[in-house]
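User: Predict structure, ligand zinc ion.
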Amino acid sequence: MRVYDLHNLDFSTHNIRTVLFFVQIMSIQNPTLSSASTDSTNRTRPAGIPITSFYLPRLTFGVGDRFGCEGAAQLKAFQDLTQQGVFVHPVWNKSEREHTTIGTEVSSVRSEADTAIQECAWNKPYFVDADHIKGEIVDKYLPHSDFFTLDVADDLGIHTNEEDAAKYLSSINLQAGAIRLDENHELNLSEEQLMDIAKRFIPAIRKVSELYQRIKSFKKEAPFITEVSMDEVDSPQTPEELLFILAALSHEGVPADTIAPRFPGRFNKGVEYVGDVSVFEKSFEAMVKVISYASFAYSLPAHLKLSIHSGSDKFAIYPVIRSVIRRNNTGIHIKTAGTTWLEECIGLGEAGENEWLQSVYTRALDRWDELCTPYASVIDIDRSKLPSLEASSSYSGGQWARILRHEQSCNEYNLNMRQLFHVSYKIAAEDGEGFKNLLLKHRSCIEKNVHENIYSRHLLPLFGPTSLG
Ligand SMILES: [Zn+2]
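Assistant: Predicted complex:
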């Protein structure tokens, strides 16, 4: 098997061989990339394409690891899936909020990923994601990341005026009227609707463009992945809005590889999806159709795909994601949160560290506001459903593990405790060496849980062969 490792490259120099190799892979998997061509509705893809960066594999799965110790255990889950003939590529993501809370260096994620790759002899693409990056903080991520999630949620609250929007609309390749996405799907955009969308989205698009150019000017010819995220807002976006965004990104020359819209429903951290699954399915499939149309019509990378920022553990929508991507023969990026930290807690529970877990719980209750406020929009903890400190003081390690593990069929599972622990990692960080020593002492128990969680609860249901998934 051919071995290639992007991350041993010096990003200050252009490695033409690697880029050619990736272009070669792209041409094999995406014949539409190589020249002007037609799609299933006989439209001609514009010549002069592609606006493309480098190959983002069809299936990618983002994992978080707050303390940076579980890279190899995480990666082994992906490796086990390759044994089933399914290739899903890991993306290590860590947000500025996590770095700040723990006090880790941005470079630590790159080190963790590279070390795991070497340890496990992973010879396929992998990525390090600068997650939810904004203008003020992008610079320190530039040398260490090759995947950038450009977050423009804040700019979605800023509107431009009608004159500016009209001028912008006259310069992009999107007019009001019926837009035929494929044989069976059409969008209808009125003049008013298009103007309204343009006014609301142009400032955010300009911000994306600025951020992209800043990264590009640092990376020069070195490849990187561009994700545009608009998920951290209150209301879901519509297929019409996504179409405008993609037309505008193309106009700005931003070769988006993946885009994370806000979907209907609630995506709380580490717990189940809250919402109507059929509403999610309808929205998700409509977005997939827009992506497929826009990548062709606007000469965006042919591998353009949706990204779902799941916040982890949205098991109820996994069957829908699985069937929609199969039905539409498209890719997906699923970005999970730092729930590996919860698997560390579960492993420590199984190893009998109940006293430490009780002490985390005691301190978390004490510092409720400090820990919960930064996550207020993505957690829903019912404090009345948490046990008293007196009751929890008698829990065995095994009980703690069952309370925290996301097994909905287990009657000891407590989603309120799980959410509270999810946001309480600052306490473990403050325990410093003491916590690190616990992680070292109970390595095998923790790694078993980290691996099992990613492999059995996430990768298999989403991507596994039918017989296993
Ligand atoms: Zn997000």
